[in-house]
Design goal:
It comes from Streptomyces chryseus. This is Ribosomal RNA small subunit methyltransferase E. The protein is an alpha/beta fold and 247 residues long. The relative contact order is 0.15.
């Protein structure tokens, strides 16, 4: 089994380091790590340190010896998923699985047919949940670079994001309105790939038209219809395989 990952504000240099606070408590009181076990410390922004546990002190202090420090390069091409707001806790499910799969950025989208609305305190709390989910899923999947979870965008703002992408696609179940299968779409070797996942009610004709003007064509994944909370994960996995990032 690979070493467990813990998050720090700044990855330490080689030598003795004490992991404290909530992460230290988790390591000592929940994981019950002991001397001789291996851990990884990361800032979630690509830097990581391999370390060996020297001792556990009290309930929330883990003393380690950092043996190696690395910086993971930014992956190419970069994959962003624009995720329409699902109902209930399906949003956290989508963020969790997309993080585990390897998505680089997640953009919440307030689509016209979204039942869920992010307004005021509720919107702030929901965004915080998505970001916390990405952080925990990044740790669980042993990532050094966690996905960025942006502020929720309007349809017009999503259009601007798509216009700046090197490849943009709107996932659509109806092959008659699409440009074919995502599995055979032409992809750049580098740059930004952006996928749009619509809500349970689908992407509206007006939204499709705006996105088409921005250069984002509709593509289908396959013959089955996926839920909004799983479509982004499936599409991202397809692109990760096709671009060689899964190799």
């Amino acid at each position: 089994m690979t070493a467990p990952v813990f998050v720090v504000d700044t990855v330490p240099a080689k030598g003795r380091f004490v992991l404290e606070g909530p992460e230290g408590r988790h390591a000592v009181s929940v994981r019950r790590l002991h001397a001789g076990e291996h851990v990884v410390l990361t800032d979630g922004r690509g830097a990581g340190a391999a370390a060996v546990v020297l001792a556990a002190e009290g309930k929330d202090r883990l003393v380690v010896d950092v043996t190696d420090v690395t910086v993971e390069p930014r992956p190419e091409p970069r994959i962003t998923v624009v995720q329409a707001l699902p109902k209930g806790d399906r949003g956290e499910v989508a963020v969790e699985t997309m993080t585990e799969t390897g998505v680089d950025a997640i953009v919440p989208w307030q689509a016209s047919r979204c039942i869920t609305q992010w307004r005021g305190d509720r919107g702030a709390k929901s965004l915080a949940k998505w970001r916390a989910t990405a952080r925990e899923a990044g740790k669980q999947s042993r990532r050094l670079r966690f996905p960025e979870v942006a502020e929720a965008l309007t349809t017009k703002q999503v259009g601007a994001l798509l216009a700046a992408a090197d490849f943009a696609a709107v996932l659509h179940e109806d092959a008659s309105v699409g440009s074919g299968a995502l599995a055979t779409a032409g992809l750049p070797d580098a740059g930004s790939l952006v996928l749009v996942v619509g809500p349970e009610g689908g992407v509206s004709p007006e939204e499709l038209a705006l996105f088409a003007e921005a250069g984002a064509k509709p593509y289908r994944l396959g013959s089955s219809v996926l839920r909004t909370s799983t479509a982004g994960t499936a599409a991202a996995a397809l692109l990760l395989g096709r671009t060689g990032r899964w190799s």
